[in-house]
Design a protein that fits this description.
- With 401 residues, the protein is α/β, with parallel strands linked by helices.
- It folds into three domains: 6-120 and 156-187 and 372-385, Rossmann fold (3-Layer(aba) Sandwich), CATH 3.40.50; 121-155, no CATH class; 199-370, Glycogen Phosphorylase B (Rossmann fold, 3-Layer(aba) Sandwich), CATH 3.40.50.
- Helix content is 42%, strand content 13%.
- The protein has 17 helices and 13 strands.
- The protein has helices at residues 14-24, 42-45, 59-69, 79-84, 90-102, 127-130, 136-149, 159-162, 216-226, 228-244, 255-261, 276-285, 297-304, 316-320, 322-333, 349-370, 376-385; strands spanning 6-10, 33-37, 53-55, 73-77, 106-110, 166-168, 183-185, 209-213, 248-252, 269-271, 288-291, 309-311, 339-340.
- Strands 3-2-1-4-5-6-7 form a seven-stranded parallel beta sheet, sandwiched between helices. The chain has a six-stranded parallel beta sheet with strand order 10-9-8-11-12-13, sandwiched between helices.
- Helix 11 (255-261) links the parallel strand 9 and strand 10.
- Helix 3 runs parallel beside helix 5.
- The longest helix is centred in the last third of the chain and has 22 residues, at 349-370.
């Protein structure tokens, strides 16, 4: 019997493409896998994706690929975001899931909401952060709806995928004994560095670099918090502080901010877009990494390699669903919090060195917890043997301690 065939359907979120890349890297089933991504994400997949990659536009594109590939497993990365980002309507996602199940596929979804979709109501959300780029009157309308609906509506819930197996890149969230959904976590041993980094970092001594990573959503949140000009000035100050410390600053940010920073003097790597593999290489080669979010998928690679990370802000998702902040700390980091630093005043190198040393034990503990999760190949095997009608147990397949 050959390797199982897997199809990955990626939403518009780069973190979900990174999750699929991490799951496939170095695995024996990757050769028989296929990635479907929105056209806008093709560049992020890079010239050497972990599996053949093609764009898709709608449900029919996915189902045609399923007819061609006849996959054993289909991973929706992420099923919730396919709807919440507007790529598919609710009824289209339902037709997709029904079509895949009808073709004999086992369908899985990733879950950045950590199992909270069924218990999160409008009263639990702060929609000004979910929609920071919307016009003021539109945010007011959404706020009015939230107040009227209160605890009666669950804005994150999508019925057709709630009972599918859920996949996590760190640990399975602890949702109590009443949770009957099959939830699996994975840890890919290839995430841990065992060889020199690739060509993206050979041109410079990246060990002397500090990298600053800002997602488009978190950029919108920061602009709402302090204004575009003030935030740009704070970023310019941090990049200049890195230069003064004798480090090469690397900024990975939306094109608008990168364009503003082009006027800065001195050497600075400004990156508006790059494949995830290049971003990961730069992250793993840098001395320190800074984020405007507590939970970013690219942060996981540094933590898995026990490299220090710093955060300026909770980030858009944790601001939108405040209870996700505490749930994320528990599920991703076992209660540990990535070191927060003041975005208005970057600590001096000696202070950063001290703060980095304080993270060493915590990072080792977190990594050991993650390593208790099965490798992707084992997760695939469990999914195939725990499909309805098999004798294998379904729930509790991943590490949840």
């Amino acid at each position: 019997m050959g390797a199982p065939s897997c199809l990955f359907v990626i939403s518009g979120e780069r973190g979900e493409l990174a999750l699929a890349t991490s799951f496939l890297r170095g695995q024996p089933f990757a050769a028989a896998a296929r990635l479907l991504v929105p056209e806008a994400l093709l560049a992020a997949a890079g010239p050497s994706p972990p599996a053949p990659t093609a764009p898709y536009e709608d449900v029919d594109d996915v189902l045609r690929t399923a007819d061609e590939l006849r996959p054993d497993l289909v991973f929706l990365c992420c099923g919730y975001l396919l709807v919440h980002e507007g790529l598919l309507a609710h009824d289209e996602l339902e037709r997709l899931v029904e079509g895949l199940l009808g073709r004999g596929c086992r369908v899985v979804t990733s879950d950045p909401f950590l199992g909270l979709t069924r218990t999160t109501t409008f009263a639990d959300t702060d929609l000004q952060w979910a929609l920071p780029w919307k016009l003021g009157w539109m945010r007011e309308l959404h706020g009015w709806l939230a107040r009227k609906l209160g605890g009666r509506r669950r804005p994150l819930e999508i019925a057709c995928i709630e009972d599918l197996p859920h996949l996590y890149p760190t640990l399975v969230p602890d949702l109590g004994p009443g949770d009957e959904v099959e939830r699996l976590s994975f840890f890919n041993p290839d995430t841990v560095l065992t060889a020199p980094l690739g060509a993206a970092v050979e041109a410079a001594d990246e060990s002397e670099s500090w990298i600053f990573v800002l997602s488009p959503f978190d950029y919108e949140c920061q602009k709402k918090l302090v204004g575009r000009g003030r935030f740009a000035r704070s970023v310019a100050f941090m990049l200049a502080a890195a230069q003064e410390a004798g480090r090469r600053p690397v900024l990975v940010a939306p094109p608008d901010l990168v364009g503003i920073m082009e006027a800065l003097p001195g050497e600075c790597d400004l990156i508006a877009s790059c494949p995830y593999t290049e971003l990961e290489e730069r992250l793993l080669a840098a001395e320190y990494a800074f984020y405007w979010s507590t939970f970013s998928f690219s942060m996981l690679a540094r933590v898995a390699n026990e490299m220090p990370v710093f955060s300026f802000d909770r980030g858009r998702l944790a601001r939108t669903v405040p209870k996700l902040f505490s749930a994320g700390h528990a599920a991703h980091f076992g209660g540990w919090t990535p070191q927060r630093v003041d975005s208005k005043r970057l600590p001096l190198p000696k202070a950063l060195e001290f703060l980095a040393e304080k993270q060493e034990l915590a990072l080792r503990v977190v990594r050991e917890r993650w390593q208790a999760s099965p490798a992707p190949a084992e997760v695939v095997e469990r999914l195939l043997t725990s499909r309805p009608g098999s004798d294998a147990p379904a729930a509790g397949a991943g590490a949840s301690e």
